[in-house]
Write a structure and sequence with these properties.
Length: 256
Amino acid sequence: MDDTQTPTWVKISIILNVLVLISTFVVGGYVFYTQHSTQLALTGVSSTAQAETPQQKLGNAIQSDNLSSCNSLQSAKDKASCNNAIVFANARKTGDSTYCKKLISTPGYTGNLSSLIQSCEVNTITNKALTQKDVSICSAQSTKAEQTTCKSSYYLSLALKNKNIKVCDSAKDTAVKNTCHNTFLMYANGPTHKPITCSTLRGAAAQKDCNTLKPVLFNRTTRPSQKDLLKACSTVTSPTFSGFCQTISNAPAPAK
């Protein structure tokens, strides 16, 4: 990897993985699917008196911020997309993770609904900690791993804001420090055409995962199939790469 340029699609994936870690509106790949439908709908909203298209109706229902408006939509896919877009927005806006319980399955989404709800809850609490600038809020996460992710996100956001990786070391927990440090390095390398050097990552697990994923992620010019990615991700154990692999595994199937 040291002598290989990072493919453009990998740079984009790395940046998205960072956003998964520090942004509460990116939930296990699903949000990309929902946002795509939502953006298409909103760009189609018109103020003219012409009959509304299904996309315009979806956009207007989402803009209403009223879940009952979603029931007026015809297709099950549009109803679910509308419902979940409003739920995501309200969970993020209020910092109330109980909103996530209102998420529903969407036709075409191949991820697990319970995992989606859990991710929504984790990201809602993380966003609240970031918004209120209070890392102690991360203690509300239900598991140790989720607390580590939340705290890593908190310190990573500060490190990126100050453009100083040393901010990561202000965290008390070693796992938090290392995840913040490693993700910062991935972000720093991603958009600058620099190859990512596995040996610069902290922790044997992160370095091992980096080297395992290297043949699939970095030594090729075309994007590998989801099957190849899932196979490579099957042995990943480090927090640095587990988020990336979770996004891959929860991503909706490509349109045919």
